[in-house]
Amino acid sequence: MAVTQKELAFMREAFPFWNQLTQRQQNLLEQSVSVSSYRKGQRLHDGAQDCMGLILVLSGHLRAFILSDTGKEITIYRLFERDICIFSASCMLKNISFDIYIEAAEDSRILLIPTAVYNELNQTCLAVSNFTSQLISSRFSDVMWVMEQVLFMSFDRRLANFLLEQSAIAGSSTFSITHETIAKNMGSAREVVTRMLKYFQSEGMVSLSRGGITITDPKKLEKLLRFDK
User: Is 90 helix (H, G, I), strand (E, B) or coil?
Assistant: First the structure.
């Protein structure tokens, strides 16, 4: 699919190093970038062996997740408009290999910089190299935060945090999501999620409907986050 001038302008604004590239490097980027659209639930990236390139989100919402040996998924970070994913080009990163999977959490559109092109810029332009290091550091922080949650935070607190996060993403106290989807994001079992949601409902924190949840008392959920049981 051809990249429009508007999308090229979006890319120039999204990359803080753009003005520090040479004219040849700018031309290389503009000529190599491609655009793709993905439907909700469609997989973009399949682990360390899939080195597709640098992803820049034009619109929509992507989620990056890891898989356990038993097939359970845990979401480690999310990508929204103007966000950039470096681990989709992980083969260019020496001694770093992650089986990170990326799928569209809603209908999404992305710009893709081929790995070879971005790697050349990363090796020849200090501004790009510095940006790459900052991006890797930021994503590692996201991963560590999730791991700390999984290892040290009780499930009720994790679920409360997840619901508040989903509400913020939706921009509403009511949002559509299934118990199965929550379980996939949190690396848990659907039955565990259902049991805790019913407890939250009995405590007046949420109201459950078929395929949807309404946060009825966000302050109670926020209070739950401040005190581990």
Answer: helix
Q: For residue 3, what are its two tokens?
A: 């990249």
pTM for this predicted structure: 0.79
Residue 101 contacts residue 66 (beta carbons within 8 Å): yes
Q: What is the rounded distance in angstroms from the CA atom of residue 207 to the CA atom of residue 213?
A: 6
Cα torsion 41, 101, 61, 90 to 10°: value is -150
Tokens of 223: 């209070």
**What share of residues in the chain are helix, strand, coil (percent, to 5)?**
50, 25, 25
Q: Tell me the CB-side half-sphere exposure of residue 181, using CA atoms within 13 A.
A: 16
pLDDT per residue over 111-167, tens digit each? 999 999 999 999 999 999 999 999 989 888 888 888 888 888 889 999 999 999 999
Q: What is the pLDDT of residues 56-90, one digit of tens each?
A: 999 999 999 988 777 788 898 999 999 999 888 77
SS3 123: helix
- Could you identify the residue written with the tokens 């290389």? 28
Angstrom distance (rounded) from CA 21 to CA 9: 15
What backbone phi and psi angles, to 5 degrees, belong to 153?
Answer: -105, 135
Place of tokens 């949807």: 212
